[in-house]
């Protein structure tokens, strides 16, 4: 990553990570306050409290949303810390879990969902790479694929380990890609910025009707 | 109903007072400290079965309090509260002798379970947050 861009990314990461801590404190207060109301309404003396059941239902919803928000913030915090260093030992499983959580909103806008699968242990293998660049490469592939499949589909990311590296395949859960879609995704990866990204990561990206295959060396 | 005496230490006042109230409803005796110095003073004044300590606080950090407690009150188990799982803070806290750490927002049942384990001197399971 160029020096100036790296400083910008580190700055964005630092501010974002700090904000996730603050927001977690906010969620903690919301969660405890909802919990206290629930405790009070569960007390025998509150059995006849007006609208008790409706309030308890609303409190359950608050608790669920606190859990949802916490999950997003945890993943956002990890993502933000990705900008701490130019190169780090990154576990593919962590990167993909992070990608799944943070791309969910983009996929839902197209009524798409994502599943992760892989050979046992492959997600535990680490590669030496710039965490932000790796995320961007995989996100680029995922969004390119998302543009080319019909609404309502499930996309898959499958991972595996090789002697000298890792691979992951982004594909449709059912059926192959149309030739036209293959061409459109290839053009995205031939774009100057995507090409620079591939080069920086020493990643080999191949697009076929089976999907987008990304190969990463263990030491980038 | 639990009978523990717990010291809650956190600078997030709304969070810690509400958590304290919820623990009292469950029968615990709760004392709250909003910063490190207040926590150390409370530890000198009264005995506690367990301390729940936020890691990130202005002034004396949770880890600094933990270090001092390991000299002055080593018998009192400490459960740390961290913002994020598997952070350096949590890991460093375990190295310094914390019983375990939990992530905020906390699940009160999980916290109670950890307190029971800590007071009974059991090995935490599974270690490192929720």
Which structural class fits the helix and strand makeup of chain B? Answer: alpha/beta
Succession of helices and strands of chain B: EHEHEHEHEH
Distance between the termini of chain B: 23 Å
Percent of residues in beta strands of chain B? 15-25%
- Spatial extent as radius of gyration of chain A: 21 Å
Largest interface: A-B, 21 and 17 residues
Mean pLDDT of chain B: 89
In quaternary terms, these chains amount to heterodimer
Low-pLDDT sequence parts of chain A? none
Spatially, the strands of the biggest sheet of chain A line up as: 2-4-5-7-6
Number of strands of chain B: 5
What is the ordering of alpha helices and beta strands of chain A?
A: HHEHEEHEEHHEE
Helix-and-strand structural type of chain A? alpha+beta
Name the shape of chain B in a single word: globular
User: Describe the biggest sheet of chain B?
Assistant: 5 strands, parallel
Q: Give the amount of beta strand of chain A, in percent.
A: 15-25%
General shape of chain A: globular
The strand count of chain A comes to 7
